[in-house]
Amino acid sequence: MKFNPAESIQDLQYFGEFGGVNPSISDSSTYTFLSAKTMFDTFEGNADGCYLYSRHSSPSNLYLGEALAAMEGTQTANVTASGMGAITPVLVQLCRAGDHIVSSRTIYGGTYAFLKNFTPKFGIETSFVDITKLAVVEKAITKNTKVLYCESVSNPLLEVADIQGLSALAKKYKLKLVVDNTFSPLSISPAKLGANVVCHSLTKFINGSSDSVGGVVCGTQEFINDLRNVNDGASMLLGSTMDSLRAASVLKNMRTLHIRMKQHSFNAAYLADKFEKEGLKTVYPGLASHPSHKLFKSMMNKEYGFGGMLTIDVGSLEKANELMELMQHNNLGYLAVSLGFYKTLFSAPGSSTSSEIPEDEQKEMGLSDGLIRFSIGLDNNIERTYQMMKKCMIEVGVL
């Protein structure tokens, strides 16, 4: 039977402590034991079902992790306080001084800064490459390489990674393939395509209401146990723990993720098609003009579409700012970073979410000053939205 991520989430059944349809929230930082021996066994990791301290785990966090593991088709998952709180422990856990990472050159600015500026302090070096060219990726692999890192759909240029091709390289050279799937939950299932570890910023589409910050690492039981190890687990020792109240909130929102992603994708596809026909330089994986359109189609879970992210290039930062301010004034969305909200969000990534990347490198990868990144919202009448956006574009001289 074909894997369906939304159905895997819905097949989970929870009962609250008092029979509620939502699991009870574990509003505790520490947990009591009936015997000292059980406490000792739990410290040693030998007491399944027992909770010690919420930095290690909590019932609420495990409920959410179980749902996210079901969504990605992995054995288990570990939730964290932020997306970066998921990504950074994974890379630190997999590498040590003298090791090397091959990463996509177009990734979230925070991840880029971590790999470019922070990990060298610990003797871990990174080569940034065009992830869409497998020959270039393979050429960058050295005897010290331990990890291939990419985003399923890159931030902000929407380049698409050939996860199956990268997985084959990872197996050939005995590497771990780590994939950030934040831009394409449900649409792409990296673990089913060969990724070893899948990360998300839960802050974005998965939570969907821009009121919580969180992250998750999905992988094997062995790897998640390593992350949580009290002696040398990066997640345990770096302490990026998600609060139980937030975990319960995100879990509730996950139940509508499949509905939301279908609408995000429908609206983004509609606008991308209209923008391209107007002559705007438009990038969206659902367009036949996208260089990886066929690749995305070959990997995707079709009913969830090509995602809610698109970009247009209006030529200059001045024009981009003028257009975004006018669209916000006309209630077409918000001039804000992040994504996955019910309203459309737009920003100029070169001066915001990708500002950690030096200007010369931005230009080399094709990140122009006039690029606007859109996270398309859940508008009920997307034709009306398009007409209003078109009017704004005409007013500022983009069309």
Q: If you consult CATH, what is the topology of the largest domain?
A: Aspartate Aminotransferase, domain 2
The mean pLDDT is: 93
Percent of residues in β-strands: 5-15%
Proper CATH architecture of the largest domain: 3-Layer(aba) Sandwich
The helix-strand sequence is HHHEHEHEHEHEEEHHHHEHEHEEHEH
How many strand segments?
12
Whole-number total of structural domains? 2
Radius of gyration: 21 Å
Largest sheet: 7 strands, mixed
Low-confidence stretches: none
Helicity range of the residues? Answer: 25-40%
Tally of helical segments: 15
GO molecular function: carbon-sulfur lyase activity; pyridoxal phosphate binding
Cofactor: pyridoxal 5'-phosphate
Protein name: Cystathionine beta-lyase
InterPro entries: Cys/Met-Metab_PyrdxlP-dep_enz (IPR000277), PyrdxlP-dep_Trfase (IPR015424), PyrdxlP-dep_Trfase_major (IPR015421), PyrdxlP-dep_Trfase_small (IPR015422)
Walkthrough of the structure:
With about 400 residues, the chain is of the alpha/beta class. The protein folds into 2 domains: about 250 residues, Type I PLP-dependent aspartate aminotransferase-like (Major domain) (Aspartate Aminotransferase, domain 2); about 140 residues, Aspartate Aminotransferase, domain 1, CATH 3.90.1150. Helices cover about 40% and strands about 15% of the residues. The protein has 15 helices and 12 strands. The strands form 2 sheets. Strands 1-7-6-5-4-2-3 form a 7-stranded mixed beta sheet, sandwiched between helices. A 5-stranded mixed beta sheet has the order 8-9-12-11-10, with helices on one face. Helix 5 links the parallel strand 2 and strand 3. The longest helix is centred in the last third of the chain and has 21 residues. It is globular. The model has no long low-confidence stretch (mean pLDDT about 95). Belongs to the trans-sulfuration enzymes family. One of its GO terms (biological process) is transsulfuration.
